[in-house]
Amino acid sequence: MTEAAAPQAPHPLVLNIQYTKDLSFEVPGAPAVFTHLRTPPAVSISLDVQVRRLEETAAVYEVTLAVRAEGTNPAAPKDGEKPEVVFIADLAYAGVFTLNGIPDNQHEPILLVECPRLLFPFARNVLAEVTRDGGFPPVLLGPIDFVGLWQQRRAAVAAQQTPAVTN
């Protein structure tokens, strides 16, 4: 005799699907750049998290981790010139998340901290693969402090909302 399985409560955070939303990689000086680049490029990284609600009647959101990596020739540029850009990689890696039974006042930290934390290893891999396949050493992103980024974003919003004092 078997007992009927008790219905399980839905998980509070569900990753429905994850995907590469947009990806571009360019080598502006190809093929010449490969003949004079003697050391690995210096790489600068910018990162942003974007959230968009997909359904008005349910807590379903698209969270996008946007990463831009720009590699420059580390050789000293001539006086007053910018370093030579050797590659630009832009990646938007996204996931569709459902929040079940989570109070509205807790959505923001989950969407801006936990969701990007779940997407990060996959975005990191895509960026490493595309830069390697583009002829450069793979760009390996280090750990990201998503809590710190969220706190910076909140501080910036609070600063914009603070009225300026005039004399």
Question: What do these coordinates show?
Answer:
- This protein is of the alpha+beta class and 167 residues long.
- The protein has a single domain (13-141), classed as SecB-like (Bacterial Protein-export protein SecB).
- The chain has three helices and four strands, in the order βαβββαα.
- The protein has helices spanning 33-36, 107-133, 146-161, and strands spanning 13-26, 42-53, 60-72, 85-99.
- Strand 2 and strand 3 (60-72) form a beta hairpin.
- Helix 2 crosses helix 3.
Supply the CATH architecture. Roll
Strand order of the largest sheet: 1-4-3-2
- Shape, per Cα inertia axes: elongated
Q: Could you tell me the number of beta strands?
A: 4
Roughly what is the average pLDDT, rounded to an integer? 90
Write the CATH fold name: Bacterial Protein-export protein SecB
Number of domains: 1
What class would the helix/strand composition place it in?
alpha+beta
Measured as a percent range, the helix fraction is 25-40%
What name goes with the CATH superfamily?
Answer: SecB-like
Tell me the major beta sheet. 4 strands, antiparallel
> Rg, please?
21 Å
How would you classify the quaternary structure? single chain
